[in-house]
Design goal:
There is one protein chain. With about 280 residues, this protein is of the alpha/beta class. The chain folds into two domains: about 120 residues, 3-Layer(aba) Sandwich (Rossmann fold), CATH 3.40.50.10440; about 120 residues, Hypothetical Protein Tm841, Chain: A,domain 3, CATH 3.30.1180.10. The chain is about 45% helix and about 25% strand. The strands form three sheets. The protein has a six-stranded mixed sheet with strand order 10-9-8-13-11-12, sandwiched between helices. A four-stranded parallel sheet has the order 2-1-6-7, with helices on both faces. A three-stranded antiparallel sheet has the order 4-3-5, with helices on one face. The longest helix has 16 residues.
């Protein structure tokens, strides 16, 4: 590849994907029982969900400036043009820290070509953008071509998701604690999406089956050419629901591919067990 790709753990791609495609892996961290643990390396998502079900409060932290500087410096020494597809700046300070460290490294290596894209995406929404960047890099595209194409791609990624327990969103300040309590009593499931990198509530729906039906309706409303897309589904330790919505999507749209993975530890610490998210494109590339 003419361009080296970097991505962070908030893309929720399996670490094996990074290894198989020679991508630099940048881990965010979770704080669990007083210990800082690197996402995917020192802790797996299932462990986080088990802890959360037992009432453990999990905190998260962005990638450290020192890690960014070390990684960027190594790449600068090699002189390989590089592109980092970063977790949404509206959900983490990771992008801003990366830009700050990039500028520091460029003072010492002014000829180093490093592009950092604020994907405005999260979880497997970000993974779709990373996979697209890898595909372009493998096809021999140059840095500027990949940058423009990936930015365009990111603007078209839809994130539609629901959570099983409103309390976790309440802890993160996304909804009020009163709303979480009432919602839990009434079996209300919120539907949310991502707009310009921010989490935005869409609707409140009672019952899981109605939520699934509404997700399919939204995909019909927003999706374009779904039969030729790769659609991603991420879940908070709820493979049963992920496979259930996969079957509905398959039946309705017959997409080119559907892949499923966990909502990773960092994002899952805020969304909680039972989260279910669907990612697809809303326009032609």
């Amino acid at each position: 590849m003419n361009v080296h790709i970097l991505a962070d753990s908030a893309s929720d791609l399996p670490i094996e994907y990074f290894q198989e495609n020679s991508i630099t892996f940048l881990p965010l961290s979770v704080e669990l029982n007083g210990k800082q643990l690197e996402d995917q390396r020192a802790i797996k998502p299932k462990q986080i969900y088990e802890e959360m079900r037992q009432g453990t409060v999990v905190k998260t932290s962005q990638i450290t400036p020192s890690l960014f500087k070390d990684v960027f410096t190594e790449l600068a020494k090699k002189g390989t043009p590089s592109l980092y597809v970063a977790f949404s700046s509206e959900l983490s300070g990771t992008y801003q820290t990366a830009m700050m460290m990039r500028n520091e490294v460029l003072e010492e290596y002014p000829d180093f070509r490093l592009t950092i894209i604020d994907s405005k995406c999260a979880s497997l929404g970000c993974s779709l953008a990373v996979k697209y960047a890898v595909e372009l890099a493998k096809s021999g595209k140059q840095l500027e071509e990949i940058e423009n194409a990936v930015k365009n791609y990111c603007q078209k990624v839809e994130h539609i998701f629901t959570v099983d327990n409103l309390e976790y969103l309440a802890r993160g300040g996304r909804i009020s604690k009163a709303s979480a309590f009432v919602g839990g009593l009434l079996n209300i499931k919120p539907l949310l999406h991502v707009e310009d990198g921010k989490l935005i509530p869409l609707e409140k729906i009672r019952g899981r089956k109605k939520v699934f039906k509404r997700i399919i309706e939204i995909m019909k409303e927003r999706g374009v050419n779904l039969q030729n897309q790769t659609i991603a589904i991420s879940h908070g330790d709820d493979e049963e629901s992920a496979n259930e919505i996969k079957a509905l999507i398959q039946e309705e749209f017959q997409p080119k591919d559907i892949y499923i993975n966990y909502v990773g530890a960092v994002i899952g610490a805020h969304s909680g067990p039972g989260t279910l998210a669907i990612f697809f494109l809303n326009d032609e590339l």
